[in-house]
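Quick question, first post here. What does this chain look like in 3D?
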Amino acid sequence: MLWNDRSFEFTSPPGLFPNVVERLRGVPLRLEGKVRRLSHDTLTDRDEDTWSILENIGHLVMVEILWMARLDDFAAGKETLTAPSSLQRPVPETAYNDTAVDVLLDRFRKARGEHVARLEKLTVKDAARVALHPRLNKP
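> Answer (accepted):
Ran it through. C-alpha cells below.
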C-alpha cells in the first residue's frame, strides 16, 4: 500500500506522550543496528519502484525537518500543519545512494536528537494540542 493511501487514527491519550518521546529517542540506535553491517549493494538496492535503504534513511532525515516545522506550527497555534511538499524534494531527486550510510545515520541521529530535545520541553497539556493534518484532513 502506498504511503499516501494510508490512513491513521490519532487516538493515543496525551498521558502517553512521555512514552512516545522515549520510543522516538531510541530509533537512531535501532536503525543503526539494522543497517550498520549491510553491504553498499544491499543499502542501494531497489526492488522495482521502491526506495533503497539509504533513500529511506535520507527520507527520515527530511521527515525530522517536517516534524520540527510542525512543532513550530503547534507553538504558533496554527490551525493547519505544514504540508510536506513545502519542505521536501522528491526522494528520486536526492543523492542518498551516493552518500555513506554513516553520514546519513549521523544526520538522522542529530536531527532526531534535536526533535526529542524539543519534545522533552513540552508538557502533557502541550501534547494535547491539535491542528489539522494537511493530507489526512483531520485533527
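Helices lie at 17-35, 40-44, 53-76, 101-120, 124-127.
The mean pLDDT is 89.
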